[in-house]
Amino acid sequence: MPANTDPDAALMLRVKQGDEVAFAELVEKYKQPVMNLVYRTLRDATEAEDVAQNVFVQVHKSAHRYQISAKFSTWLFTIARNLCLNELRRRSRHPAESIDAAHAEHDDQPAQQFEDNKVVSAPDSLLHGELTEKIEQALAELPENQRLAILLCRQDDLSYDDIAEVLGCSLSATKSLIHRGRETLKQKLKPYLRSGHWRPHKPQL
Amino acid sequence: MDIGVRTNRNFNRKPVLYRKDKMNNDPLYSRLREAAWRRKLTPGETAQLEEWLAGHPEAERDWETELALSGSLERLGDVPVASNFTARVVSRAQRHSQQAGSPERDWAGLWRRFMPRFAVVAVGAIAVLVGYGRYESSQRAKIARGVATVSEVGTIPSAEALRDFDTVRVLAEARNDERVAPDNELLALNLR
Fold it and tell me: Which of B38, B45, B60, B109 has its Cα between 20 and 30 A from that of A97?
């Protein structure tokens, strides 16, 4: 894919040359979708933020390996998926180990502190209703690959082919994963879906 | 949507319910449903769907559930991200690139990372070398013992003396064997 058609690829070319402003632009653009994916895969706000940061640090470290022919978002979400799966594997191996301990050997310098102007508690603000909570729970109970497929399906800039590339499987397998995941969700959320509570609330006049 | 019954392949006699979803196999319905998973249908697609649903009223319920699920998933919204997220990421990335740029840190990192593996390989190599050394020395000791035994033999008789060795040895054995009596007469004739 030529850089002039993909603005992200053009930014990555600048990152390759050491342009930190371009890197910050990419982080700013993709922090929300990456955070959405990572949080809903790991279901832990603190770990999700740390892993999401690692995704971008990995992008920065691997900038010299980035092929301009690859779509940036596909590459980014592949990194995000791999780091999420690593984290889930680490959790299953060392359930009680803190994520800070896992990175302690690489981070022997204290992290620079930045004030958070908009202090938010991710789970509190996220789970703002019973239905939302039920959907989150039903999503969390899906097998990893079905959950990832459904979450990636929400990304507008990823085609089904891109999702298949991120998941490392064929197009038909990807569609099958989404279909099976959605069927499970439909079964679990049946009473809520039939009640019509899913419809957006209309402002009362 | 009709529901059928089939038995498991392991013939455990327990019936398993499954859905014979004819709609899933309909290419038009599948295409429209896959499109609706990701976005709102275009007016053209909506018209196609309505026409199709008119011919398949049993699928209306399924389509409504699909729409309801898509609506619910849209309701999820975004996870809050800290306002200093970008600054923290850039800071971490810079720290990593500074660390990567320092050759001393590179060597230290590599040493820390590979030291356990190196130690295991070194212990294995030392064990193999010690084992091989012991084997070699035992072989050398065996050869030395052989040489010492040979060196203890005083003098070797000449070839002339050894020419009738076999005959003499057989005669000597025969003399000691009670079953074979020596032919004394022949010996006497030979001695004349």
Answer: B109
What is the residue-wise DSSP string for A173-193?
A: HHHHHHHHHHHHHHHHTHHHH
pTM of the model: 0.62
Give yes or no for A77 touching B (CB within 8 A): no
Closest CA to A83 of A68, A69, A71, A99: A99
Give the CATH number, domain containing residue A142. Answer: 1.10.10.10
**Burial degree of A61 (CB within 10 A; 0-12, 13-18, 19+):** middle
> Same domain, yes or no, for A194 and A164?
yes
Mutate to test the interface with B, among A47, A58, A154 (most CBs of B within 10 A): A154
Residue A111, domain member (yes or no): no
CA–CA distance, B146 with B66 (Å, rounded to integer): 92
| CB contact (8 A) between residue A116 and residue B75 | no
What is the distance in angstroms between the Cα of A201 and the nearest Cα belonging to chain B? Answer: 10
Give me the interface pTM, i.e. the ipTM. 0.73
* DSSP for residue B39: S
Taking only the tens place, the pLDDT of each residue in A126-144 is: 444 677 888 888 999 999 9
